[in-house]
Amino acid sequence: MRSPQVALFALAVGAFGIGSTEFVMMGLLPQVAAGFDVTIPSAGYLISAYALGVVLGAPLLTAATVRWPRRTVLMALMSMFTVGNVLAAAAPTYATLLAARVLTGLPHGAFFGVGSVVAAGLVPAERRSTAIAMMFAGLTVANVLGVPADTALSQHFGWRATFVVLAGIGVAAIAAIAWLVPAQAPDAPSLRRELAAFGRAQVWLALGVCMLGFGGVFAAYSYIEPMMTYVAGYSPGATDFLLALFGVGLTAGNLVGGRLADRALMPSLYAALGGLALVLALFVFTAHHAASAAVTLFLVGATGMACVPMIQTRIMDKARGAPTLAAAATHSAFNLANAAGAFLGGRAIHAGLGWTSPDWVGAILACAGLALAVVSGRLDQKR
């Protein structure tokens, strides 16, 4: 019997491919816009198209495959991911590429939802959060290595080559999952039971914590380039370094957060959300100095990502007996947080509050997430 670590590695390969595909478009926008003779803002809809696919696909694909063996589900989802990237590489028109991005985004949330349940089932109960974090490490490493490498590849061989490579990663993930992940039958092969989990207030509270907490991260992160350029004084050429630094923070926070969650889930979640709120509030002031701004950016990534394995485990606990659909819904919540955080941060800037005002917005959202987490914890104590 293969060790859980190799199975978690296979899941991380899939997460790496998905993470690279999600974020790489930000570095390809100028090339894609030029290739299809559209404006860069219009090309930016390709980012939104992927997010739309995630929001729609997470509940729909999870519901459609709830009776399937989980390894089969993971392979099917990565197959859809691979086909989407092949279509993107061959897209003859902008509209075709837009459709391909929606298709590629569809399996995202379902993969992480099903993958979280599989990862948790590979290890003893007291190590579930660490196992989930190991799978998510593929997503965070994609920000540090995958996205910069794919962007560099596109600069030398064109943006279509990037999607060819991403499709290749999809094929590698399918093979790794087939070979290394043990077969797992679904615990509750009933869509009704999966849907019944959403009748529990604690599941909705956990999703709310996810939306508010990560809404805070995205409020600040969405405007990190102008903040670091116009306020901290970095040159535009330093953006890649700063984004990589943020990615290192994500990776470190994810791994530490998983270990802390296994020791004391709710106290660790309170600490992570409180730390995120504090760091975002401090960012308003530290952003005026290059060195302190870089350190704070790292800490935003670390404290924000530390919440992910905690929230994922919390939702799976509260959706007891039918965790798959609720776990997948987390990723719809993440993408809604992305959209809401960016919108609110943008409104603060448009109101004339300055480039650092999204940090205040983020701090307020993180505080709201912490308050919701405390309410959830108090409900546990009353039972």
Sum this structure up briefly:
With 383 residues, this protein is an all-alpha fold. It is built from 15 helices and no strands. It has helices spanning 4-36, 40-43, 45-64, 70-90, 94-121, 128-157, 159-180, 191-196, 201-221, 224-231, 239-263, 265-286, 290-318, 324-350, 357-382.
Q: How would you describe what is shown here?
A:
The structure is a single chain. α4 (70-90) packs antiparallel against α7 and α9 (201-221) packs antiparallel against α15 (357-382). It contains 15 helices and no strands. The radius of gyration is 20 Å and the shape is globular. It has helices at residues 4-36, 40-43, 45-64, 70-90, 94-121, 128-157, 159-180, 191-196, 201-221, 224-231, 239-263, 265-286, 290-318, 324-350, 357-382. With 383 residues, it is an all-alpha fold. It is 84% helix and 0% strand. The model has no long low-confidence stretch (mean pLDDT 87). It folds into two domains: 4-186, Growth Hormone, Chain: A (Up-down Bundle), CATH 1.20.1250.20; 193-382, Growth Hormone, Chain: A.
